[in-house]
TrEMBL record:
Pfam families: CMD. The gene is LOC115336583. Residues 159-207 form the Carboxymuconolactone decarboxylase-like domain. This is Uncharacterized LOC115336583. Residues 1-28 are annotated as: Disordered. It comes from the Eukaryota. GO terms for molecular function: peroxiredoxin activity. InterPro entries: AhpD-like (IPR029032), AhpD_core (IPR004675), CMD-like (IPR003779), Uncharacterised_peroxidase-rel (IPR010195).
Length: 312
């Protein structure tokens, strides 16, 4: 049951509209005895945001599971109509299942990390201060890889930029079309990041290349001198194009024709160039924020135990 401070109390769904709106504006809804349910959370969001009864009626027909007692600490009503920003719609099902309690305590900045070597020049927000969608993504990554790459921690300093950065990363690195394999993409990143002198990207994506290619030495060869590495003519043509983009060389029709002679088309050339361009930006970001590679990257793919889940 949700009650109102002061005289009257009662079911908010039966209160006159103006009284309900006034109560919501004052932030006076409080949780009392029985376990809070997801529909009541929806009702509070509706009242705090608009004072509209529609969400309340819908909630009664789609009653969810009771929330755990700990949710009372999270689901508190804030004054000045702040509740709708405090609880995102994506959070409601998780709270209803008690999932917020069960999720592992990972990533982010914690008291235990306060004496650890920093991941970069900028502070890493504490978990409790991060937007939920970013926390959720970090936990998913850590569950797959066994650790959280420092780029996620560093970029969480700017949530909007975090979302944009990883959305574009996903678009170019995880697309299902084109002739570039995952190993090809990682090799492009290794080669261009070496030219841009980016330790983080060289170490992290060198590790990913070892895992995808099953060739523990090739990335290291490319880092030292890509022209002397054990590469096929196809891979040499791919890296030549990528490095021309990386160095801002004059791109001519001959570059495209050389790719085509080795089985790539114009769309593949776009992918190669876009990966080079995106990671040139990433290299510069890592450079000025002094982003440090995770120690876990160094041995990944070199030994039988240095593997991670391939889809990470």
């Amino acid at each position: 049951m949700v009650h109102r401070r002061g005289a009257g109390g009662g079911d908010p769904c039966r209160m006159p509209t103006e009284q309900r709106r006034a109560t919501a504006r004052s932030g006076a809804w409080v949780s009392l005895p029985r376990p809070l349910t997801a529909p009541l959370v929806e009702q509070r969001v509706a009242y705090s945001d608009r004072g509209a009864p529609k969400s309340c009626q819908k909630s009664r027909s789609t009653c969810g599971k009771a929330l755990p007692p700990q949710a009372a600490e999270v689901i508190r009503v804030l004054p000045n109509n702040k509740l709708s920003s405090f609880l995102s719609p994506q959070l409601l099902p998780l709270l209803a299942s008690g999932g917020l309690r069960r999720r592992p305590q990972v990533a982010y900045s914690t008291k235990e990390e306060s004496t650890a070597r920093p991941v970069g020049r900028y502070p890493v927000p504490n978990k409790k201060d991060m937007p939920y969608d970013i926390v959720e993504l970090m936990e998913e990554v850590e569950m797959k890889t066994g650790f959280l790459p420092n780029v996620f921690k560093a970029m969480s300093h700017r949530p909007a930029e975090f979302r944009a950065f990883f959305a574009y990363y996903n678009a170019i690195m995880n697309k299902d079309t084109g002739r570039l394999s995952k190993a090809d993409k990682e090799l492009i990143i290794v080669a261009t990041s070496a030219v841009n002198r980016c330790p983080y990207c060289v170490v992290a994506h060198g590790a990913l290349h070892r895992i995808y290619s099953k060739q523990p030495a090739l990335a290291d060869q490319v880092i030292v001198n890509w022209k002397l590495a054990d590469l096929s003519d196809r891979d040499l043509a791919m890296l030549e194009f990528a490095l021309a983009v990386c160095r801002a060389d004059n791109i001519t029709e001959e570059h495209f024709q050389k790719l085509e002679r080795h089985g790539f088309d114009r769309e593949d050339a776009w992918d190669i160039g876009m990966i080079s361009a995106f990671f040139a930006m990433s290299n510069r970001i890592a450079h000025y924020i002094d982003l440090r590679p995770n120690k876990e990257f160094y041995m990944m793919g070199r030994t039988p135990g240095g593997e991670m889940e391939e889809e990470a």
